[in-house]
Amino acid sequence: xxxxxxxxxxxxxxxxxxxxxxxxxxxxxxxxxxxxxxxxxxxxxxxxxxxxxxxxxxxxxxxxxxxxxxxxxxxxxxxxxxxxxxxxxxxxxxxxxxxxxxxxxxxxxxxxxxxxxxxxxxxxxxxxxxxxxxxxxxxxxxxxxxxxxxxxxxxxxxxxxxxxxxxxxxxxxxxxxxxxxxxxxxxxxxxxxxxxxxxxxxxxxxxxxxxxxxxxxxxxxxxxxxxxxxxxxxxxxxxxxxxxxxxxxxxxxxxxxxxxxxxxxxxxxxxxxxxxxxxxxxxxxxxxxxxxxxxxxxxxxxxxxxxxxxxxxxxxxxxxxxxxxxxxxxxxxxxxxxxxxxxxxxxxxxxxxxxxxxxxxxxxxxxxxxxxxxxxxxxxxxxxxxxx
Length: 388
Fold this sequence. Notes:
elongated, mainly alpha, 15 helices
């Protein structure tokens, strides 16, 4: 039985035992072209011009004769007869494979026609790499692009089927492999976002969106599509059910019949983007600015260590409350207990620092306390208004 492998590195086997390598790439290219165009009479002049386009016609025909002889010798070394697979005449060559001949490209094409997980898994398994890797003839490049597109389509359909079948880990594997071939494929990015979310990895799903956005901006100068952004916003607000619809993913696989999902429980909306930005900036300023202000003011006045106790306590509480706020800024307002706790802590801290007798000799401490109290009250008012 003859096996021909054209995906990835070219190789020949007889009964699953490797045959000797063909001595020239042109001989391998000739055999590959014949095998991928079976049952057609291919004129010798056509093959010679295809493989040696820059050589004179007579010289190209001699090279074709040499390449054919090289193929015949390799078959003979493997105990095979080339005449069992190739019909040779003085004017044309015709690949007429025997019943026991096996070609990975043919098997791949048949598997891609399937709509079930098993057939598509066979297709992506057969695709070991680009068609005739390291071959650069024009005919080869054209077929390479076609098979690469077919593999990407199979991976996309397979990933969606795994997602619908509640196999998010396998969906991740397919989508990651697809992105290795097509890093700008938004469908693959959406599949990864959904699969990460289904696995309980919400931060990874959000990071996948950011990677998609950076890729599109760097390579094409565009923003993600509305479908990708809607999926991101649903994950951000945690309002996405643990499954997805065909229309959201826009994958090419046939829809899978499933029972209708139960409606997702209503969730409170996340804070608006402008308000999240305000919380982020306010928290960062308090996180870095207040402790630094306290420390520099104390150093500049060369006070005793005991005088620093109030300032250090204020700085520590400011840091802790700011971290709470940073952690909770994306949570829905109804669930952002850490955010409200942080703001309340900052309000009380600011009032205490402004009114503490030990701060009387530190005007900057009092100013920092007043800032904390007033800005915290203002931010609380904005959050309350957005909540309503």
